[in-house]
Specification:
mainly alpha, 3 helices, elongated
Length: 121
C-alpha cells in the first residue's frame, strides 16, 4: 500500500513537471496591459518592467472596456406607468394634473362655516 502511494505521487509529479516543460508561452493570450512599457528608473536607469517591449494598460481600448464593464447592470430601463398614459399636463406640486377622460371635480369637504359664540348662555 505504501509503495503504491509513493509510485502514484512520483507519477503525478512527473506528469506535472512534463506539462510545465512542454507549455508554450507563445500560445498564451496577449492582452494590452500586461507589463509596463519602456519605463526606466530615473535614479539607476534600470528597466522597471520584466518585458520592456510591451505597452501599459492606459490605451484607449482598455479604458473603453473598463468604462463599459458594468453597463448592463447599472443602465436604467424605465418603463412607462400605465396611469401616466392619460396625462395631458402636469401643473406642478400641490395641483392635480389634467388628464384625458371625464373631468372629475373634487368638492371641498366644507362649503360654508358657522360662527360659534365664545360665551354660551
Amino acid at each position: 500500500m505504501k509503495t503504491s502511494l509513493v509510485l502514484l505521487t512520483v507519477f503525478i509529479v512527473v506528469l506535472l513537471s512534463i506539462s510545465l516543460v512542454l507549455a508554450n508561452p507563445a500560445l498564451l493570450p496577449k492582452h494590452p496591459g500586461y507589463p509596463i512599457g519602456k519605463a526606466v528608473d530615473p535614479v539607476s536607469g534600470q528597466s522597471l518592467a520584466n518585458d520592456p517591449g510591451q505597452t501599459n494598460a492606459t490605451g484607449e481600448n482598455s479604458l473603453a472596456q473598463a468604462a463599459a464593464f458594468d453597463d448592463v447592470h447599472v443602465r436604467q430601463s424605465l418603463s412607462s406607468n400605465q396611469s401616466d398614459q392619460r396625462l395631458l399636463e402636469k401643473p406642478g406640486a400641490g395641483l392635480l394634473p389634467k388628464v384625458q377622460g371625464p373631468n372629475i371635480k373634487i368638492d371641498p369637504p366644507v362649503k360654508e362655516g358657522m360662527k360659534v359664540n365664545a360665551s354660551p348662555q
